[in-house]
Task: inverse folding
């Protein structure tokens, strides 16, 4: 059956948006690795301008005091709001965070790195809005796709606002962690929408799913295995998510250690990391073993599409291990840090696609198995 125009448009924009988000994660990692997170002290403008300055002479003489006062006032308002809503711990962290009172010196390179990061974020906002618009035809055909697209758009808007808080709190750890977690949620929603839009027609079933018709009495056993693998994969995805969050916290500790050391003595930074780094390193071994086991079980299903996803998962894990070992052994080289983060988020995406593929196999396989039983009667 020929694919309708609105289906092609939706799949194009949803996939383009996901790719752009991964590019933004990579750029965000570069921002962190280069220490450019506060290259623009305000938001959405940069030093009060839509086009950032290139020289300190373009700024007011008291720009540090000016932007620090603006940021502190915004943080105090946010903290009071959070406290009134019951989030007293987070509010206390905002009040107590000492770096919110510190303004960094103007650095044109860091300013433009951060500003490019913001421009890419704005572009993604446009992409996800277009994705929601081209999803309108699905409102009467497949409402989950429409609502997934709309939810992604709304969450992207919230993510932009949260990004302003990351700046105003001078990279408060809890804000950075929430920012990262929300990005992964948006990726998952868009991947689910794109996957559902592609496989919603039964004419596009995998060859492996069609082969279930020949399984006869073994169909129920095969589908039970698939259902069990779905739960195991949920667990593995959860482990990966926790590992990424721990990684952001390790990154935050590194920033603090580097700042305290005046960005010198880089070789000693790893030794100064605390329990979070140990947890991150230990969990990495668990993630590897869990993915190896689940990947082996998925491979036994002999579905070509699933096997490609397993190969992708194992390849990403191998590359991620190399990047992690390089960071630990070679004094945290800055160029490896964004690669390490991007590989982890790509792994999350491939795992989620594998889960969706198993879910589709289980649902359609069940329908085929029921039809087979009816024919036998």
Result:
């Amino acid at each position: 059956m020929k694919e309708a125009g609105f289906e092609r448009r939706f799949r194009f924009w949803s996939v383009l948006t996901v790719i752009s988000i991964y590019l933004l994660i990579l750029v965000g990692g570069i921002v962190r690795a280069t220490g450019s997170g506060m290259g623009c002290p305000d938001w959405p403008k940069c030093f009060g301008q839509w086009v950032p300055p290139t020289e300190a002479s373009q700024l007011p003489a008291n720009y540090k005091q000016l932007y620090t006062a603006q940021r502190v006032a915004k943080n105090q308002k946010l903290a009071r709001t959070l406290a009134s809503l019951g989030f007293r711990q987070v509010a206390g962290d905002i009040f107590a965070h000492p770096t919110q009172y510190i303004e960094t010196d103007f650095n044109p390179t860091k300013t433009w790195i951060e500003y490019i990061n913001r421009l890419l974020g704005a572009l993604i906002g446009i992409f996800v809005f277009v994705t929601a618009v081209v999803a309108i035809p699905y409102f009467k055909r497949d409402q989950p796709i429409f609502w997934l697209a709309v939810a992604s758009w709304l969450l992207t808007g919230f993510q932009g606002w949260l990004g302003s808080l990351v700046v105003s709190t001078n990279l408060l750890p809890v804000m950075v962690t929430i920012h990262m977690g929300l990005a992964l949620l948006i990726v998952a929603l868009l991947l689910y929408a794109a996957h559902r839009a592609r496989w919603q027609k039964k004419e596009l079933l995998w060859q492996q799913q069609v082969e279930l018709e020949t399984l006869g009495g073994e169909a129920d056993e095969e589908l039970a295995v698939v259902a069990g693998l779905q739960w195991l994969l949920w667990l593995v995805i959860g482990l990966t998510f926790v590992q990424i969050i721990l990684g952001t916290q390790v990154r935050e500790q590194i920033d603090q250690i580097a700042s305290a050391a005046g960005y010198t003595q880089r070789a000693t930074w790893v030794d100064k990391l605390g329990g979070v780094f140990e947890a991150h390193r230990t969990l990495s071994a668990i993630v590897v073993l869990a993915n190896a086991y689940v990947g082996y079980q998925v491979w036994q299903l002999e579905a070509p599409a699933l096997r490609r996803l397993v190969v992708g998962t194992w390849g990403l894990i191998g590359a991620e291990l190399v990047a992690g070992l390089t960071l630990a052994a070679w004094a945290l080289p800055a160029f490896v840090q964004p690669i390490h983060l991007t590989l982890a988020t790509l792994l999350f995406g491939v795992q989620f696609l594998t889960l969706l593929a198993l879910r589709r196999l289980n649902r359609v396989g069940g329908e085929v198995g029921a039809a087979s039983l009816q024919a036998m009667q």
Q: What stands out?
A: Residues 1-204 form one domain. The chain has two domains: 1-204, 207-377. Residues 244 and 344 are 7 Å apart (CA to CA). The first helix runs from residue 5 to 33.
